[in-house]
Amino acid sequence: xxxxxxxxxNGLIKENPTFVLMLxxxxxxxxxxxxxxxxxxxxxxxxxxxxxxxxxxMLRKIIPDSVRMPAFIVVVASFVxxxxxxxxxxxxxxxxSLGLYIPLIVVNCIILGRAESxxxxxxxxxxxxxxxxxGLGFTVGLTAIGLVRELIGSGKAFNYQLLxxxxxxxxxxxxxxxxxxxxxxxxxxxxxxxxxxxNKVKINAAKKGKKVTEAAGCGEGCASCAGCSGKVFPTGNxxx
Length: 240
Description:
Elements lengths: L2 H12 L10 H6 L4 H24 L9 H23 L1 H7 L10 H9 L6 H31 L1 E2 L2 E2 L22 H24 L33
Antiparallel strand pairs: 1-2
Helix pairs in contact: 1-7, 3-4, 3-6, 3-7, 4-5, 4-6, 7-8
């Protein structure tokens, strides 16, 4: 597996930001009332991820360490503004549905995390494919959650009525939507269910002797982590 393919696989499967690393939970839980919203939010984030990774990687030897994070935020905010204007101009219905969560892409920990941990330390091409992998992984996660919530909560998929609804006035039999799934609690239920399903698949594969890749995301406290900046921050308990 070459480097570019590995970066895409990493974002889609090994370190999927939604189901493995559990990053970007705010838009994940808030905008996934439908599959269309999930696709729109995921692809918008993917565009920003790819472009910001590319530019940050190109400037990685120029940006001073002392202003590293402010510089990253400026780069990300510039691309988010462009994406926001494009959505507002060409897809106004999607723009209205996503609302405040489009400008909040600026502080999405997936984008800033990849900028800090990968793009600022690696070549341009690999950084671009890292953004593609993480963005597609985020899109798949949001779309899957939105699809399940929409199907159970309204009998639709991508706004198409798949399950005929029951009509009480005429006595027509049909599907009775479980509306809690398109409300806030439904997001938590679906996320938990899909994550549990993924973990079950991994456990069964491990029992059969298959190699299961472990996520390299955060598993300990931030103070003891060297993954983001390469430095271990003092906790106050170190021995002299």
